[in-house]
Amino acid sequence: MEISILCKVVDNFGDIGVSYRLSKNLKLFYPGHNINLIVSDLAAFKNINSLIDPSKNYQRIEELDVYDWNASEYCSKVFSENDGEKLSIIIECFQCGRPEWMESILFEQKLQRTVNIIMLDYLTAEKYAEDFHCLQSLTRSAKVQKVNFMPGFTAKTGGLIIGKDWENVPSYNKNGSVLIFTYNFDFLPVIQAAYKNNKKLLVAQGAGKKSFMSSLENFYSNYESLNCGEIQENFCRELPFLNQTEWDKMMKDCSALIIRGEESLSRACLSGIPFVWQAYPQSEKYHLVKMNALLDVMKEFFDKDLFTIIKDLWLDFNSYNNSGRDESTIANNASNADSNSSSLENNIFIHSNLFFENLERLSEGFLNFALALRKNGDLCHNLMTFIEKKYIINK
């Protein structure tokens, strides 16, 4: 069976991160099927898989057939062959749409076969994930059938991509570093709290790195007035771009994670490591709805006092500096800041400090949450079970 996975890279590396992880795990677990990964930005893909050559229309990497979404003439020819055989099953990731050459094949070339499109939606803990899971949608052709498939955090959704590398929860390293992978944020109070608790920081490449480095520079320039004493060796280290397997290994060795987006969120949830999630900022603060929905799922795994620590810090990260201000504004604010300069910054320092002080206590709740998620099954297995039942057994 041919399965074609569509990935349009629109926001850093989360789109390609999920699509690549899905593709390689489907191939690993179901080697008899051919996986075609169609990517709009191969240069972004190369940042998480160094084997990728962005100049090629087609390449075979790790037993995956990788195509350049933008190579219209080449892809149109290849995917039209054998009555559009490669388009028997299409997985459209994150409502990304389809390239024009594919639209032409599906709706203008009068294929004899039925094409089945699976809309793999964004990860959310909101109730609609259960309501929309496996719900059929209409297209403009009876030969093109479409259905929604929702990742999620409950047994009534498709679950999370787990794979062999994440079958087990990693052992918690209480002495590990703290990973920073976020959007823009005034990080000075968080940096102060991490330093106070003897935590070393790893800052990843991506959208929030520049604002973090501005905050770090101001921390270094003002540490004497902040009574920090001598700066500890290797307090903060900037990470290079890492292949996905290297990224996973690095995450598992951390004592805390401050992360963003969907791909890193799913890994954090499965890791059992205490984490803070900064959701993608949305209009009318809708990201707070998403944040609270996930907290509602998690709260049963924590004592009330520990859950309050998590909720307060998550609210800080999702309410403060999510207005799209540029790095220069953040840097100017940070240059005049210390832990007492404003009540808001003081709150962030207090909440961050409580988080770092209680990492070992918090880790038990995060571990139980991670174990519970595995009971929902692997999204790849759940997806293939759905495909085989709906499109093969019932054919």
Spell out the key features of this protein:
44% helix; alpha/beta; 395 residues
Would you kindly provide a brief summary of this structure?
This protein is an alpha/beta fold and 395 residues long. Helix content is 44%, strand content 15%.
Write the layout of secondary structure elements.
Elements: E1 2-7, H1 14-29, E2 34-39, H2 42-48, E3 58-61, E4 64-68, H3 72-84, E5 89-93, H4 100-108, E6 115-120, H5 128-132, E7 136-137, E8 144-149, E9 178-180, H6 188-196, E10 201-203, H7 209-222, E11 236-238, H8 244-252, E12 256-260, H9 263-271, E13 275-278, H10 286-298, H11 304-319, H12 327-335, H13 343-357, H14 359-374, H15 379-393
Parallel strand pairs: 1-2, 1-5, 2-4, 5-6, 6-8, 9-10, 9-12, 10-11, 12-13
Antiparallel strand pairs: 3-4, 7-8
Helix pairs in contact: 1-15, 3-4, 6-13, 7-12, 10-11, 11-13
Task: Report the major sheet.
Answer: 8 strands, mixed
Tell me the series of helices and strands, N- to C-terminal. EHEHEEHEHEHEEEHEHEHEHEHHHHHH
- Radius of gyration over C-alpha positions, nearest whole angstrom: 22 Å
In what order do the strands lie side by side in the largest sheet? 3-4-2-1-5-6-8-7
Poorly predicted sequence stretches spanning 5 or more consecutive residues? 322-341
Helicity, in percent? 40-55%
User: Number of helical segments?
Assistant: 15
Morphology: globular
| Category by helix and strand content | alpha/beta
Mean pLDDT: 91
The strand count comes to 13
Bin the strand percentage: 5-15%
Distance N to C terminus: 14 Å
